[in-house]
Amino acid sequence: MRDRNPLSPWNPSIPAEITPSEFEDLVLTWLRKCGPDNELIEAEHLGTIDGAGGEYKIDVLVRLNVFGGAVVVILVECKHQGRPVERDEAMVLEAKLRDVGAHKGMLFSTSGFQKGAIQYATAHGLAMIAVVNGEWLYGTRSTGNGPVAPPPWVRLDRFAGLRMTSTDSSISCHTIELGRVDALKEWLAESCV
User: Fold this and answer.
1) Which residues pair with 62 in a beta bridge?
2) What backbone torsions phi and psi does residue 153 show, to the nearest 5 degrees?
């Protein structure tokens, strides 16, 4: 498909057309929809957290209250850039996790991820989510060659997400939409047990 990045076909060739503030608002919206039943999820935009190396400003700081009082801290970074996220950027997030004693980390990107970043993230329990234009997601679900424009009656979210994990032989992608954040809920549930 011509809309895919030839060097990393799990990524679109063109970054999602979203402003930085829309991007962070979308991430906040998705995360706030993930609160498990009878448990509270708090997602703070530009939250601060202290570590041995000083104070960090995190794009989205998540506190998930589970088991009647335990707090799981999740650091979320939002990369709004024109190139896929590299392994080093995943390594920086993982280092912040260790420094502040957070439990898990998530990295959202408007341009997807290099394979090495996804492999590193999978090995270290980080979630990697590419934000894509909703129409791109429709094209990946269609059959045939070449880009496919959705028919006018199809209702698509303006943006969607792809949670990416590395497998032994490929990259696995799980869809995220405003009405369906299961891929994020499943990762959070895995992270909290």
Assistant:
1) 43, 74
2) -80, -10
Give 150's DSSP letter. Answer: P
Using CA atoms, how far residue 71 sits from 38, 42, 47, 103, 161, in Å, is: 14, 10, 16, 9, 26
Was domain 4-191 assigned CATH 3.40.1350.10? yes
What are the residues facing 47 on neighbouring strands?
Answer: 58
Please, what is the average pLDDT of the chain? 82
Cα-based angle 53, 59, 63 (whole degrees, multiple of 5): 85
pLDDT in tens, 155-186: 777 888 889 888 888 888 888 888 888 898 88
- The closest of 22, 23, 1 to 12, measured between CA atoms, is 1
Identify the pLDDT of residue 189.
Answer: 78
Q: In terms of DSSP bridges, do strands 104-109 and 54-66 run parallel, antiparallel, or are they unpaired? A: unpaired
Please indicate, yes or no, whether the overall pTM of this predicted structure exceeds 0.90: no
